[in-house]
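Researcher: We plan to redesign the surface later, but first we want a full-length starting point. Tokens attached.
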């Protein structure tokens, strides 16, 4: 989904009003209704039956969106209360119209016009907080009552989920920089189109997951005013046509036979998780080649897969001849291949990776140890006979190209783009704000996911999802973007319902069918 600057978004609003006769009041109403839907979905995901929602409004148009959202939440029988960082007498224009409607609905409103008022305010014990203090028109650090409101929201966030409206208050919508106090959100419900600053590394600590609220800006106007960008936000609206409706007469052969190669003595879980994820992500057939010594363990954990035990080295890893002796007979029927989870960094693992790169014809995903053994040898990726997708975390990317982790993290997009060009591959640079890069395509940034996913096995699940999507015929760039979205979305859904601290990799696999409902009806 295209990213826009604050100026571009304001221009779209202006022209929608002037050229398409959509009033500012109507745009604000649509924004409020959309934010209410986001809040309601989050409350439902978190298990709140009758949530108490505390909305914090500023004096500008962002406050107007809050008043509209409060009205719709009250209509949905939520308990709501509005606190205003200012005085009612300061509200003007369309925002005043929506404030009047909220007041007519008898929604409680409390005025806190000074920072001292906020400093003395006591938390209400809300289940969710809605931050509408400052919007995209704000510049510089927060001042006056806005500072107190932001501090209040962050203090209350220890016991409540936070939804920021458009951008977290205090964050620059264009640069993603914070010059002063900033709201730390769990979800940002951005209005119209996502803002450029939301995907900047400096913003990741504040933004949380991003939901885009459609306010009906005509598509032709968007196309005219928003030129093709070199960066985009990965969002579910991009994928609704990628996974077509499955035919009633379809059989498992229609959805791809994928091959997963990995595992070693003591590392059965990695390849088992990848196999389970591939099955959950829609692959028709999943074959796993793993060392014979751990094949029974993998078979017991991944019941839907066909588990094949291959010859192993003295340390319990796969031998260099695994592809030729065991995988090559399957090569013509394979729709995608994954190599790496649990492979270990045995000397023969390096030779196995080279053999697969030389021989594989199906789209190939290299993950984990398959990348680690190529440290300092990225040229091997360019020798592949097939489309290649690599999924390094920052440490693996740094080792692959003889860089420091700090340098990778300081320029994540640039590093991913350079790696994609050098290796002639699709690159998935994992971490907060996962980056997907492919030469000739916009660099795509994913904002689903949360810190609870920083747990062993989560990367193996992503690799399995990606391989399954490739096996179903998606192009590497599309498969990579969809995989990271689904992976992070599943993680968010688990964390909202349970917790971040209690999240384990297997939870991601179990949540995948529900994450798919974001983009598919069936």
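Model: Full-length starting sequence:
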């Amino acid at each position: 989904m295209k990213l826009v600057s604050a100026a571009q978004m304001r221009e779209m609003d202006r022209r929608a009003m002037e050229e398409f006769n959509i009033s500012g009041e109507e745009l604000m109403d649509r924004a409020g209704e959309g934010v209410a839907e986001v809040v309601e979905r989050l409350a439902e995901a978190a298990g709140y039956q009758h949530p108490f929602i505390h909305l914090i409004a500023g004096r500008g148009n962002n406050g107007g969106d809050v008043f509209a959202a409060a009205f719709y939440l009250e209509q949905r029988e939520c308990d709501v209360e509005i606190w205003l960082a200012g005085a009612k007498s300061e509200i003007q224009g369309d925002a005043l119209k929506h404030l009047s409607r909220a007041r007519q609905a008898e929604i409680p409103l409390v005025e806190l016009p000074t920072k001292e008022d906020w400093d003395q305010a006591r938390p209400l014990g809300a289940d969710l907080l809605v931050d509408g203090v400052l919007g995209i028109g704000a510049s510089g650090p927060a001042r006056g009552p806005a500072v107190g409101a932001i501090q209040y929201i962050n203090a209350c966030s220890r016991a409540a989920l936070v939804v920021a409206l458009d951008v977290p208050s205090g964050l620059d919508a264009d640069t993603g920089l914070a010059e002063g106090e900033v709201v730390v959100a769990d979800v940002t419900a951005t209005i119209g189109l996502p803002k450029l600053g939301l995907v900047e590394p400096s913003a990741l600590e504040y933004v949380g997951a991003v939901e885009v609220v459609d306010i009906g800006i005509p598509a032709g106007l968007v196309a005219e005013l928003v030129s093709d960008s070199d960066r985009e936000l990965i969002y579910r609206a991009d994928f609704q046509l990628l996974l077509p409706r499955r035919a009633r007469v379809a059989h498992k052969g229609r959805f791809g036979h994928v091959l997963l190669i990995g595992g070693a003595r003591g590392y059965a879980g990695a390849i088992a998780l990848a196999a389970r994820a591939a099955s959950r992500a829609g692959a028709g057939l999943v074959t796993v080649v793993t060392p014979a010594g751990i094949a029974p363990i993998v078979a017991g954990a991944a019941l839907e897969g066909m588990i094949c035990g291959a010859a192993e080295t003295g340390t319990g890893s796969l031998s260099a001849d695994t592809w030729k002796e065991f995988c090559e007979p399957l090569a013509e029927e394979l729709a995608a291949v994954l190599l790496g989870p649990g492979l270990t960094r045995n000397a023969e693992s390096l030779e196995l990776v080279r053999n697969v790169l030389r021989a594989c014809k199906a789209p190939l995903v290299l993950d984990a140890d398959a990348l680690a053994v190529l440290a300092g040898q990225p040229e091997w990726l360019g020798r592949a006979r097939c489309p290649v997708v690599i999924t390094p975390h920052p440490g693996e990317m740094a080792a692959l190209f003889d860089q420091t982790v700090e340098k990778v993290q300081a320029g994540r997009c640039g590093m991913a783009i350079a790696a994609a060009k050098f290796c002639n591959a699709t690159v998935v640079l994992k971490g907060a704000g996962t980056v997907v890069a492919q030469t000739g395509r916009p660099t795509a940034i994913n904002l689903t996911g949360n810190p609870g996913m920083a747990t062993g096995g989560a990367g193996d699940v992503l690799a399995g999802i990606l391989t399954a999507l490739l096996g179903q015929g998606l192009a590497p760039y599309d498969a990579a973007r969809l995989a990271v979205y689904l992976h992070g979305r599943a993680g968010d859904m688990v964390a909202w319902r349970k917790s971040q601290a209690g999240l384990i990799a297997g939870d991601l696999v179990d949540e995948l069918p529900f994450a798919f409902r974001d983009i598919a009806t069936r």
